[in-house]
Amino acid sequence: IGWISRNRRLARDFERHCRIAAAFVRMAMIRIMLRRLARKPSV
């Protein structure tokens, strides 16, 4: 769960609604996945 602490917004519970918090978690996961896909393949 180290990736949560890398996203400042997710490090603490600022959101009042669960839907908004879930959306931020989803955006963080998309960001991580895009970074992994964009990485140059190691040879």
Key descriptive features of the protein:
43 residues, 3 helices, 0% strand
Topology:
Layout lengths: L1 H5 L1 H4 L6 H21 L5
Account of the 3D structure:
It contains 3 helices and no strands. The chain has one domain. The chain is mainly α and 43 residues long. The model has no long low-confidence stretch (mean pLDDT 75).
Mean pLDDT: 75
N-to-C series of helices and strands: HHH
Total number of beta strands: 0
How many structural domains can be distinguished in the coordinates? 1
The secondary structure category is mainly alpha
Characterize the quaternary organization of these chains: single chain
Total helical segments: 3
Roughly how many Å is the radius of gyration? 13 Å
- Note poorly predicted spans: none
CA(first)-CA(last) distance: 28 Å
Give a short synopsis of this structure.
With about 45 residues, this protein is mainly α. The chain is built from three helices and no strands. About 0% of the residues are buried.
